[in-house]
Amino acid sequence: MEKQLKIGLVHLDVRYKNPELNRKTLLQLNEKAAQKGHQLIVNTEMAIPGYSFQSLEDIAPHVETDSGPTMTGLQAIAQKYGVFICLGFAEKDAESGIYYNSALVLDPGGNIVCRYHKINAETRWACPGNGVQDNFFETPWGRIGVLICSDTYHGLMPRQTALKGADLIIAPANWPRGGLDPAELWRVRALENGVYMVGCNRGGRDRTMSCKNAPSCAFDPHGRTLLNRESSSSALMTVNIPLEKGRLARTKRFERLKQRHPERYRPIYLDMRHVTYGGGDYTSYYDLAPPGLYEISCYTQVATLQSILNIVQKHQIPEKSNLGVLLFPELPHQKNVMALLPVIKQQIQDSKKAVCLGFRDEAGASRQIFMTPDGMVYHHGNNWTKECISKANALPGGDCYRTIVDMGPIRAGICTPDELTHPEVAVAHAKLGCDVLFSCAGHIEPSWQIVAAAKTLERINIAVAGHNMGFICQPPESHDRWKENLNTASGVCRAMLDSNETRSKKFQDRLDFMTLLCQT
């Protein structure tokens, strides 16, 4: 019984508009990989023509069909050595003449067992793929999923691939470091889905883009690095993935996906593209309060109710801020928490302060409590059910169950730390107009922090207070990494935000919503 899966990554120095040289080098490296015993060989995105084309006419001489010279050459290698091969290339559909940025997978018999068209395709020449296409193939080691480069940027495409049963996701890519590092993002996708994540990048220089520092990477379901390597020149890289009884491990994926609550994620299917038609934004669409400045303060190492009360009393909101939100770490139990709520409520009523607390109930489940300046107290927890929803605004003292709160210049979402690991939560709240997600946590692991921070890619701010760490993250500009305020010492992490910056949003909408909302 096999103990490991040997994967070869053909990290190619792709020469722009030089298909003959690229094909020759690619076939040589694929044969070398097969000879060295690699069982699955992954090639880069757009490996034969290069990447940056300006029009249909520009790329027309460089597209191939699935019976072209590159695929024919790779089929011979797959058959000769009995290996799986994945190729990223510019494909011309033989029947329609449509051009795609494609990834094709050959089995050991040379048969095409997966044909994936990039969803976030290059708008100047490529037709985007169908969101419900089957982007996986079967192997003796388990089901393997395929995505291409920026299709891993937003969280729901890797998530739906994991929901389809993939325990390993491979991604041909043209993605250099600088701005958002693809290695960091691919690690997040491995962690949040409990899968192996392998990205095959490239070297060299394209028309305008340098890929000399583009990393080829592999991460296990725990986010541990198996490979993170750059090469300006062509290189064959190896990743050995351990197998359990000859199969890819799936325990972590089952654990991650079992925690989902699809009934809470239905807003993800909303088509929000029309919001901006006519120059509108989420303020006008949802009739939100006018946007403006607000301050978030995430306190760390605050362990007693009295210390929380002291901070609330002393905290001063800057004059220019329309609202100040104070977040505190999760308390270990709910003893006396409820008794403190009326005291805090009295302290902040008719002020510009809001307070977010967390604790563990008798069953160990996370509970979040949010108190607003107008005297409302909102409760939320992991076992939030349809019964809780029906109790909205029915609790004594103005309390209610809700995950979305409008106050001052913001619409805010409340979620537990467990919920914040799921991309569906961020997308659902963002599509409902939320500017920020708040959560109170216990001890925060660095791997959990990066998974939570990456939710800003769904165009929503994230603020979390924990015992050992507090952080406030904002959506990135262009292709940059998200903005981050982080405190790992005793004290406070603080930032002044502007809700003007989160009232215009764009989403990945070519998705398999049936899989995302029906699969558990």
3D structure, described in words:
- Strands 1, 2, 3, 4, 5, 10 and 13 form a seven-stranded mixed beta sheet that branches. Strands 19-18-17-16-15-14-26 form a seven-stranded mixed beta sheet, covered by helices on one side.
- The protein is built from 13 helices and 26 strands.
- It has helices at residues 19-35, 56-59, 69-81, 156-163, 182-193, 251-258, 282-285, 305-314, 337-348, 386-390, 423-431, 446-453, 513-518; strands at 4-13, 40-43, 84-92, 99-106, 112-117, 136-139, 142-146, 168-172, 196-200, 202-203, 215-219, 225-230, 235-242, 293-300, 324-331, 353-360, 366-371, 377-381, 399-401, 404-407, 410-414, 436-440, 461-465, 470-474, 483-487, 491-498.
- Mean pLDDT is 93; it is low at 384-399.
- The protein has two domains: 4-261, Nitrilase/N-carbamoyl-D-aminoacid amidohydrolase, CATH 3.60.110.10; 292-502, 4-Layer Sandwich (Nitrilase/N-carbamoyl-D-aminoacid amidohydrolase), CATH 3.60.110.10.
- The protein has 520 residues and is α/β, with parallel strands linked by helices.
Short description:
One of its GO terms (molecular function) is hydrolase activity, acting on carbon-nitrogen (but not peptide) bonds, in linear amides. InterPro entries: Aliph_Amidase/BUP, C-N_Hydrolase, C-N_Hydrolase_sf. The protein contains 13 helices and 26 strands.
